[in-house]
Amino acid sequence: MLSITKKVIFLPVKIIMIEKTLKYSFIRIVIKALIGLTIILFAYASNAQTIEIGGFGGTSYYLGELNPALPYNQTQLAYGALARYNINPRWAAKFSYYRGNVQGSDATGGSVINRDLNFKSKINDFSLVAEFNFWEYFTGSKKNFFTPFIFGGISFFTFKPTSSSGVALQPIGTEGQNIGFANRNPYNLYSVAFPFGFGFKYSISERFGLTFEWGMRKTLTDYIDDVSTTYYLTGSNINPDYPAEILSDPSMTHDPFMQRGDDQTKDWYNYTGITVTYKFDLQNNKRCNNVEWK
């Protein structure tokens, strides 16, 4: 009887440990995959025709509970760096780091009335994507000097939502995570996304290339905006001087388990902008001059 009691007591603890182990194992697998693919690309670069290094400048925005369907709503500045391996005239692989601000609010997002929520966050995005050129393209070519393209791949990103006044939202548990309400736990400030999009490449000169790109990121988290499930406080009992309470329900009109967000949908974010790159030849000049697609 005693052994049964111990099993019953420790079973929830074991379940939580297993869930955390699986979660962190998945993140480790994704990170290792990104690192492994990057190493493979570096190793393969010796056989590639060219490598391009450059910078990105543009805008970023997000789609989620506080901006369900308005592209470029509350657009913010974004910037970053990239390395592109041109494998052949049609295919390239790109590793990039983009950093952008995103924000949203019920006041401007056309979302839920009488909720009064808002947020802002910085997103650090590390992406590895494959690019396919619709036409043959080569930076420096006088013949194949422009092309539209599409891309897709995988990203690892970090975020940190705060209120418009700068209060970090994840640590205060706005949906009852800190007290285990409805068995909720604090969410992670990192996740995985799947980038995809399209663009246009243009060769400015023998060494410089210009690219316009539009790229969405479909994420595996619903907490970029700190809004996902239900309320956990009785609005009429909220102390407006206590940030952990008032930032959960600014209108002070809801009850526990009333809908605050939609946990069946995940958040998205977008980078749109221009990259300028400088080309380096990875083969000797004599061999490069004989490349038929140059």
Task: Give a written overview of the molecule.
- By secondary structure, the chain is of the alpha+beta class.
- It has a single domain (48-288), classed as Beta Barrel (Porin).
- Helices cover 19% and strands 37% of the residues.
- It has helices at 2-44, 106-109, 243-246, 285-288, and strands at 50-63, 76-86, 91-105, 118-133, 146-158, 190-203, 208-219, 268-281.
- The chain has an 8-stranded antiparallel barrel with strand order 1-2-3-4-5-6-7-8.
- The longest helix has 43 residues, at 2-44.
- The chain is elongated, with a radius of gyration of 24 Å.
- The termini are far apart.
Q: Features of this protein?
A:
disordered C terminus; elongated; Porin; single chain; 19% helix; 8 strands; 294 residues; alpha+beta; 8-stranded antiparallel beta barrel
Output the CATH class name: Mainly Beta
The overall pLDDT average reads 86
Structural class, by secondary structure, is alpha+beta
Q: Approximately what portion of the residues adopt beta-strand conformation?
A: 35-45%
- Strand order, main sheet: write it out: 1-2-3-4-5-6-7-8
Overall number of domains: 1
Low-confidence runs: 6-16, 286-294
Characterize the quaternary organization of these chains: single chain
Query: Count of DSSP E strands?
Result: 8
The best one-word shape is elongated
Instruction: Write down the Rg.
Output: 24 Å
Distance between the termini: 80 Å
Helix-residue proportion: 10-25%
- How many strands, which pairing sense, and closed or not: the largest β-sheet? 8 strands, antiparallel, barrel
Q: Encode the helix/strand succession as letters.
A: HEEEHEEEEHEH
Number of helices: 4
**CATH topology annotation:** Porin
Give me the CATH architecture, please.
Beta Barrel
